[in-house]
Design brief:
This protein has 268 residues and is α/β, with parallel strands linked by helices. The chain has 6 helices and 13 strands. The chain is globular.
Length: 268
């Protein structure tokens, strides 16, 4: 993207951080990428950061020190119980909003970026996933509440189904600034701005070892397929590739002007 006008906001959104390789890439590249893309804020999905599944208090602290403004997650956020108290005390660490009421944490926050309120909403898909509260109903309810704070709303929809992701984006088109999918670790090439001004991409990809199977050991992934045995997946520890999108938004009406995906290789 070229230099942005001063009247727009630009969000750098980084795909699922996978294992140590993904963490190294984030910690070494986040601040330089923010400068390169002239971004005003950084959103990171961190649910796979620790051994491919979960987060710890120590790692989430490093995320924020590296330049993340908000960290979203998904179904793996529950893998490490040490993060549960942090979910209750750190407003910028989100778990999906549509989990049952009473579980640790919350699925939304509002931060101030260049004197503008920006809301981030985290949802988890229902198709092929756990039985959660409907992301469409919860999403619509939360968007109506968040729009009282700002028209700028970003949604991380952590889901397997491309159909469900695209349907939710269309359902909320014009009411949110952008919906970006996470969870599959495979970046899609369908980024666009919908008819009412909502930016959309089915999946922003991952930040993890490039020579891998969605961040996992190639050998173990092949052995699982050949033997049909539930072998434990292992994280590859090789140089990473960092994937994500840059979203340019009109802060006055919350509409997306442009959404572009990117991939950056790390030497670490």
């Amino acid at each position: 993207m070229p230099d942005k006008p001063e009247t727009t906001l630009r969000a750098l959104v980084i795909g699922d951080i996978v294992g140590q390789a993904g963490c190294r890439a984030l910690f070494s590249m986040a601040k330089s990428l923010k400068r390169e893309f002239a971004a005003d804020m950084v959103v990171v999905n961190g649910e796979n950061a620790v051994d491919g599944s979960g987060l710890t208090p120590e790692v989430i602290k490093e995320f924020f020190e590296a330049g993340a403004d908000v960290v979203t997650s998904g179904n793996h956020i529950w893998k490490n119980k040490a993060i549960y108290p942090v979910l209750d005390t750190e407003n910028r660490l989100l778990r999906p909003e549509n989990y049952p009421k009473g579980v640790p944490g919350k699925g939304h926050c509002t931060i101030t970026v260049r004197d503008c309120n920006v809301s981030i909403l985290n949802l988890e898909g229902g198709l092929n996933r756990s039985r959660l509260r409907c992301p469409f109903a919860v999403g619509r309810e939360m968007v109506h509440k968040l729009r009282k704070e700002s028209p700028v709303i970003l949604v991380d929809f952590h889901a397997e189904s491309a159909q469900e992701k695209e349907a939710l984006a269309t359902y909320l088109d014009g009411e949110i600034s952008a919906l970006f999918g996470t969870h599959t670790h495979v970046q899609t090439a369908d980024e666009r701005v919908l008819s009412r001004g909502t930016g959309y991409i089915t999946d922003i990809g991952m930040t993890g070892p490039e020579e891998s199977v969605i961040g996992m050991s190639i050998k173990v992934a092949i052995d699982r397929a050949l033997t049909q045995m539930p072998l434990k997946l292992e994280i590859e520890d090789k140089p990473a590739i960092l994937m994500g999108v840059v979203i340019e938004i009109n802060p006055e009406n919350g509409k997306t002007i442009k959404l572009e995906r990117f991939q950056k290789k790390s030497s670490l």
